[in-house]
């Protein structure tokens, strides 16, 4: 083959390689954009689902408190039994009236228990729906991430094929454009991923109302960590309970402390968002040491522990052992997990993901 013919073949091969790479990269970019659009659309659905879950969760909490009051009242009064009705009724009419009253009391208790069962079922259904949407979103994000890796591979393959081509210098500009396109795709993916896992801090706040050391959770609490056997009424749905993060589902594992008692002085205190810590507040704090820590404020977090799941809102910030703990739970949260006090909760390992 004449040298001119070999040169022409090299040129033709190099151009064909670049054309194939450009075509595939265009395809990948379109597929990536579609996945990102679908992930963003799912976020809108997730936000709506969160409202439904939190409403259902609130009803479960209120129902639990009402049942607790009924049982407490019965315990304090000694309750009303059939023998009490029989022995304390002075005549037949009074006996009939007391029996009707006893029946009404027992029916009211049975009705409340059934209502609570229905509330719990509604919460579980809403939570399952939320988790389905969140899992689907994380799957889309993972697929989009794979597209960026594929784009980088396309460029790398083209670069390798052109390395020995005599006209590599002539096609250097086209190759550089391909690399820039792949890098832009990777940067976009990184920003989208960060927006899901760690929202961008819009404006730094000038102060935080609860930036006291460890946010009310003392270091000694870590000695009180233990297992929970209480029934929170939470869903059995949960996340990854292993010791590492799962990038495909968004679940992370970390230590969670607790605060919100009179003894530590944080019950009734104002949080970073201005919310007040009450015995039923469903808030959590995150460490100030986290990047863009204040940007988590107002965001919902799903927390799973011992087969139970709670949705809480980030409304506070704290030292939290310099970030050695991931979450600091307020009373409504640790009570939902069955703890009797923040000291009873101590520091325990939980799974969590931001929604």
UniProtKB/TrEMBL annotation:
Ranges of compositional bias, category Polar residues: 205-219, 248-264
Gene3D superfamilies: 6.10.250.3150, RlpA-like domain
Compositional bias segments (type: Gly residues): 231-242
Coiled-coil spans in chain: 4-52
Domain of life: Bacteria
CDD domains per record: DPBB_RlpA_EXP_N-like
Name the UniProt record assigns to this protein: Uncharacterized protein
Organism: Slackia piriformis YIT 12062
């Amino acid at each position: 083959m004449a040298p001119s013919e070999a040169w022409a073949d090299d040129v033709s091969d190099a151009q064909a390689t670049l054309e194939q790479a450009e075509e595939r990269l265009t395809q990948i970019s379109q597929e990536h954009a579609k996945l990102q659009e679908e992930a963003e659309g799912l976020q809108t659905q997730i936000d709506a689902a969160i409202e439904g879950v939190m409403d259902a969760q609130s009803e479960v909490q209120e129902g639990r408190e009402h049942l607790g009051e009924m049982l407490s009242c019965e315990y304090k009064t000694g309750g009303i039994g059939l023998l009490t009705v029989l022995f304390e009724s002075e005549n037949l009419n009074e006996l009939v009236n007391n029996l009707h009253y006893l029946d009404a009391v027992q029916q009211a208790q049975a009705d409340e228990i059934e209502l609570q069962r229905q509330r719990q079922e509604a919460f579980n259904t809403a939570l399952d729906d939320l988790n389905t949407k969140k899992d689907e979103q994380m799957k889309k994000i993972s697929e989009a991430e794979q597209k960026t890796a594929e784009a980088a591979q396309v460029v790398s393959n083209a670069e390798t094929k052109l390395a020995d081509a005599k006209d590599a210098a002539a096609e250097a500009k086209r190759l550089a454009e391909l690399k820039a396109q792949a890098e832009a795709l990777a940067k976009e993916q990184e920003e989208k991923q960060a927006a899901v896992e760690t929202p961008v801090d819009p404006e730094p706040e000038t102060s935080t109302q609860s930036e006291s050391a460890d946010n009310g959770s003392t270091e000694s609490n870590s000695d009180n960590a233990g297992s929970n056997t209480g029934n929170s009424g939470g869903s059995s749905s949960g996340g990854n309970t292993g010791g590492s993060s799962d990038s495909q589902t968004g679940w992370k594992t970390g230590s969670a402390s607790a605060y919100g008692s009179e003894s530590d002085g944080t019950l009734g205190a104002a949080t970073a968002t201005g919310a007040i810590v009450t015995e039923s507040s469903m808030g959590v704090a995150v460490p100030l040491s986290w990047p863009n820590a204040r940007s988590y404020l107002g965001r919902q977090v799903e927390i799973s522990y011992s087969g139970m799941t709670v949705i809480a809102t980030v409304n506070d910030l704290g030292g939290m052992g310099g970030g050695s703990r991931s979450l600091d739970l307020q009373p409504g949260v640790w009570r939902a997990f069955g703890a009797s006090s923040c000291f009873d909760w101590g520091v325990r390992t939980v799974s969590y993901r931001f929604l």
